[in-house]
Structures are given as C-alpha cells and as structure tokens.
Design a protein that fits this description.
three-stranded antiparallel sheet; globular; 3 helices; 8 strands; alpha+beta; Dna Ligase, domain 1
Length: about 130
C-alpha cells in the first residue's frame, strides 16, 4: 500500500495519539515532517521533537512529545489538512488565512521553507497552505 499524503498521515497520527492521551509518538521521518514538527514546537503545540536514527539499517523515525496543560488537557485541540494531493490550496501574501481569529496557526510552505501564517504576513510571502492547527 502506497501512501499518497504523508502530511495527512502525520496529522492523523498526532490527532489519534492525543485522543488516546499518549505522551509521545513515533512516525516515519522525512525532512518536511521534521520541519512541520519543529514549527509546531516553536509555536508551543508540541513539547519536543527528535530524529531517531537506527544503528544498523532501518529507517529513521521522528519522535514527537505531545504537550498537555497542568490540568491534563491537550494543548493541541484541532488539526486539519488544507491543501491535499487532489486539491492544492495556495495563498498570496495578502490572503494568508487567520485560524480562529489568530488563536490558531496556519502552516504555509513557502519558497523560504515552512512558515507560520503570521511569519508569512510579516515577511510578505505566500505559498501552499499545508494545514491549520489550533
């Protein structure tokens, strides 16, 4: 079985891990997933991100530590894929969406790498809207 949308798979794994109240999860590694996880960590949605490389053979995995409030509620309450393989969604620097009126983050793939919607507005670049997180 081939995977057509690894980003959607990553978001689904995170969503499922939060619902199951896991503290961490491991997903197959790719540079795009690593940068996406680092961006979510920078925005305060994840606790830690590490690339685990096996000693002999095998594929590297991305280990993600999920973040919860002191009361035990997940910091991440929603993730949605915007641009899909069958329908790409792009925005110009002026049309970068605000998620929940600025409470959430839209992740945009730009010519300068992955950026949050806020960073896109500040730097004046647009790109493909990968996902929204809140």
């Amino acid at each position: 079985m081939s995977m057509t949308d690894p980003i959607a798979d990553m978001l689904t794994r995170i969503r499922n891990a939060i619902r199951a109240r896991h503290t961490r999860l491991e997903i197959p590694h790719s540079k795009l997933k690593e940068h996406l996880a680092e961006l979510l960590k920078r925005e305060g949605y994840l606790d830690a991100v590490a690339v685990i490389r096996p000693k002999e053979g095998g594929f590297p995995v991305l280990r993600i530590a999920l973040r919860y409030t002191p009361a035990g509620d997940p910091v991440l309450s929603g993730l949605e894929r915007v641009s899909k393989p069958g329908r790409r969604v792009y925005c110009s620097k002026d049309d970068v969406p605000k998620v929940l009126g600025g409470l959430g983050v839209s992740v945009v793939s730009t010519s300068r790498g992955l950026m949050s919607g806020e960073d896109c507005r500040k730097s004046g670049v647009g790109g493909e809207i990968l996902c929204n997180v809140w």
